[in-house]
Amino acid sequence: MKTEMEKCLAGEWYDCHNQVFLDLKTRTHKLLIKYNSLPYEEKEEKHSLLKKMLGSIGMKVSVASPFICDYGCNIHIGDNVTVNTGCTFVDCNKITI
User: Fold this and answer.
1) Alpha carbon of 28 to those of 1, 12, 14, 23, 54: distances in Å?
2) Cα 14 to the center of its chain, rounded Å
3) Cis bond leading into 39, ω under 30°?
4) How confident is the model at residue 1 (pLDDT cuts 50, 70, 90)?
5) d(C-alpha 55, C-alpha 57), whole Å
6) 95: which strand partners?
7) In degrees rounded to 5, what are phi and psi of residue 81?
8) Is 24 helix (H, G, I), strand (E, B) or coil?
9) pLDDT of 41 strictly over 90
10) Residue 93: Cβ-neighbour burial (10 angstroms; 0-12, 13-18, 19+)
């Protein structure tokens, strides 16, 4: 039997109110509050928070604030990427940049 996350990533019907998603949203929301409150110059701390939040992140990545996402773990960003200000990623499925 598939987990709710496996159903989600497969594009099947899933329960977005399942505890796994609620826990992910809570965790990610707390990280986003920290991330979005940091000044631009705090690049190391911002990168550290992105590493905790995202599925994977490359080198030389800049994500401008405010940044919003649902789960974070479904987002994979490679090297040399800039995400401009005000970006919202609805990551109820895999996002790869």
Assistant:
1) 27, 23, 20, 8, 9
2) 19
3) no
4) confident
5) 7
6) 75
7) -120, 135
8) helix
9) yes
10) exposed
Total residue length of the chain:
97
**Residue that has been written with the tokens 């099947």 in this structure:** 12
User: Which residue, chain included where needed, has tokens 């992105």?
Assistant: 50
Look at strands 56-57 and 81-83 and give their pairing.
Answer: unpaired
3-state secondary structure of 45: helix
- For the record, the structure tokens of 45 come out as 């701390």
Both tokens of 42, joined, read: 């705090």
- Cα gap 51→66, rounded to integer Å: 17
Token representation of residue 5: 């996350």
Residue 78 is given by DSSP the state -
User: How confident is the model over 47-88, as pLDDT tens digits?
Assistant: 999 999 999 999 999 999 999 999 999 999 999 999 999 999
